[in-house]
Amino acid sequence: MYQDVAQIIFVKGSQVLLAYRQNTEFLDQQWSLPGGRIEVGETPRRSALRESFEEVGVEPISLNFLIQFQDPNVACLHHVYVCDDWQGELINAEPHLCREVSWFDIEAIPDVHAPTIPPIIAALKRYLA
Length: 129
Prior knowledge:
With 129 residues, the protein is of the alpha+beta class. It contains 2 helices and 7 strands, in the order ββββαβββα. The model has no long low-confidence stretch (mean pLDDT 93).
């Protein structure tokens, strides 16, 4: 069994921030959301806050729960949060694990993406409507 995961959707207008993973044991060479494994004793929200700083160098000011769902490919839960306000500048804070971070229009997500992206984007569209 895998550890549960916290992911953060950074939203700017109709765009979302995605990270292109590299040198990782899971989802290598795919676009994904910033996030990672929830550590033992950590709440999903606390994990999302920690991962935001570790992966993209910012501290979320606004962090709202979006969705929780079972991963379609591995035995873990995804806890997804939306952030539309943060402190700091979004950067690629882990270049050894991420080739780049880029903004994409919600309607133009790259084809090479993590399998969890479609249900998350669908939930985000409902959230933003």
